[in-house]
Specification:
This protein has 203 residues and is of the alpha/beta class. The chain has one domain (2-194): Metallo-beta-lactamase, Chain A, CATH 3.60.15. 22% of the residues lie in helices and 25% in strands. It contains 5 helices and 14 strands. The chain has a 6-stranded mixed β-sheet, with no helix packed on it. A hairpin with a 3-residue loop joins strand 9 (113-116) and strand 10. The chain is globular.
Length: 203
């Protein structure tokens, strides 16, 4: 399975939107970058599904444009007027060529889910590799209304409990893609989250 960050060239704030090509070509998050449809078409003419990790603006701003351009089904945990399929914890979903388990991972957002297969982790904003605050394992911010560090910690633990050994690709909502020992990155993110210190102390 090939995974392309189709918002990598964005000059405005957006999440990473990942196009996984293969048996079921899938976009994980739509991002907030205007040319995202053209970036998708650089890799494929067909898009089977869009999966949302959560519905913060930087992940869904271009969703209508993507859905209008492609006859794709929308998967989301929370209600959305264009949702075709409701995601639930424990569901299995084909992303590209990999069967992923849906893990409900609230904390950064009440509707947050992560996707994990035997090879890959699509972690949204719960766990990232690098984000300007930390390198080599960080976690989504939890200092805004409706967010919870305690729920975030439990979600990271849930990923560790349910992620198979050998996962080597981590595709997070922000920062860079990581290839290597994904478990070590998630463990470092948990360690930092459990300190319960402000992630951005100056804000």
């Amino acid at each position: 399975m090939e995974v392309h960050n189709v918002t990598a060239d964005a000059e405005t704030f957006t999440c990473n939107a990942y196009l996984a090509t293969g048996e079921r070509t899938t976009l994980v998050d739509a991002g907030a970058w205007g040319p995202v449809v053209d970036a998708i078409r650089d890799h494929t003419d067909d898009l089977d599904a869009v999966v949302l990790t959560h519905q913060h603006g930087d992940h869904v701003q271009q969703l209508d444009r993507v859905l209008d351009a492609f006859d794709a089904e929308l998967y989301a945990y929370a209600e959305h007027p264009r949702r075709d399929h409701a995601l639930e914890d424990g569901d299995e979903l084909l992303v590209g060529d990999e069967t992923c388990e849906v893990i409900y991972t609230p904390g950064h957002a009440d509707d947050h889910v992560s996707l994990v297969s035997g090879q890959s982790l699509f972690s949204g904003d719960v766990v990232v590799h690098d984000d300007g605050a930390f390198e080599g394992g960080s976690f989504g911010r939890t200092d805004r209304p409706g967010q919870s560090r305690e729920r975030e910690i439990e979600s990271i633990k849930e990923i560790l409990d349910r992620m198979p050994d050998g996962v080597e690709g981590m595709y997070s909502g922000h920062g860079g893609v990581f290839h290597g020992d994904v478990r070590s990155i998630v463990e470092k993110a948990l360690e930092r989250a459990e300190r319960r210190e402000p992630k951005y102390p100056d804000e």
